[in-house]
Amino acid sequence: MMKHMIEQENDNEIFQQVDFSKEQLAGCEFIECRFVNCSFSASDLTDTDFLDCSFEDCDFTLVKLNATGLKDVCFKRCKLMGFDFTLCSDFLFQVEFDVCQLDYALFTKKKMKKTTFRQCSLVECDFTECQLTESVFDDCILTGSTFYRSGLTKADFRTAIGFSIDPDQNHLKKARFSQAGLAGLLEKYDLRIEA
């Protein structure tokens, strides 16, 4: 267990196996930092800024967010269940997810152009009025997730499963779907699609 002093400004640090739930993080700034196998469970990240940071195998269960900055942040194999991205600062907001558990996360009204979700569980997520132009849902599970008045222009759902997207309620121009995914677009019509 490595002990790190958390400063107001932290630059180019590597944090391994740190339990941040016991640390005062509100108002801190992290630039080009790497977090490996850390717990942020029940942490207060109010006004905390993360710029060009990566999180690997981290737990964000019940984290408190308010004006939290996620600027060019990559999450790998992280547990972000119920994470409320709507409370994060919109300024330079940019995230990427790789093999993450994002069930019940809220993305309502976030601008997330060109966001990549790779092999993520996105069960029961809320993407209402979310701007996801050119975003990629690569090998993701979207069962029960809500897409309503969402900007999905050029989004890629070819390898995603479980989604239900109403073409009349979302912007889908040039969005990409596999033949198997067509059922998720036609669900409201109660059609039987057979091979």
Automatic annotation (TrEMBL):
| InterPro entries reported in the protein's UniProt record | 5peptide_repeat, PA_immunity-related
Q: What is the lineage of its organism?
A: Bacteria, Pseudomonadati, Bacteroidota, Bacteroidia, Marinilabiliales
What protein name is recorded for this chain? Pentapeptide repeat-containing protein
PANTHER family in the cross-refs? ANTIBIOTIC RESISTANCE PROTEIN MCBG, PENTAPEPTIDE REPEAT-CONTAINING PROTEIN
In terms of Pfam families, this protein maps to: Pentapeptide, Pentapeptide_4
